[in-house]
């Protein structure tokens, strides 16, 4: 089944950004797997996977810097908060980099080269 036109438009826009080499639209089962297996401190990934749609972007070193702080210390714990992602014209957009276990799992689904990284973008329509 092909994604709705709005998602195709968003993905097309993402694929044109400097540093983005590939993308992968996660299925509901894959999003659930991420929610069950990501570290509890990675709030950004948990929120992204919990959105209506979630795209995994693969990027290289020419990708831009994050728009906000990606690591915070709260109540003595290190957390990874959700980060805004202004390039996506949708509702409730958040982004975050997955932890090593989820990055490795995603790398088996989408070819990720040594010098590349994964980034999850979650949003609602």
Structure description:
With 125 residues, this protein is of the alpha+beta class. The protein has one domain. Helix content is 31%, strand content 26%. The strands form two sheets. The protein has a four-stranded antiparallel beta sheet with strand order 1-2-6-5, with helices on both faces. The longest helix has 11 residues. The two termini are 18 Å apart. The model has no long low-confidence stretch (mean pLDDT 94).
Give the secondary structure arrangement, pairings included.
Blueprint: H1 5-15, E1 20-25, H2 28-37, H3 43-50, E2 53-59, E3 72-74, E4 77-79, E5 91-96, H4 100-109, E6 117-124
Antiparallel strand pairs: 1-2, 2-6, 3-4, 5-6
Helix pairs in contact: 2-3
Q: SS-based structural class?
A: alpha+beta
Strand percent estimate: 25-35%
Please indicate the count of domains.
Answer: 1
Biggest beta-sheet profile:
4 strands, antiparallel
Quick one: how many beta strands?
6
* Spans of at least 5 consecutive residues with low confidence: none
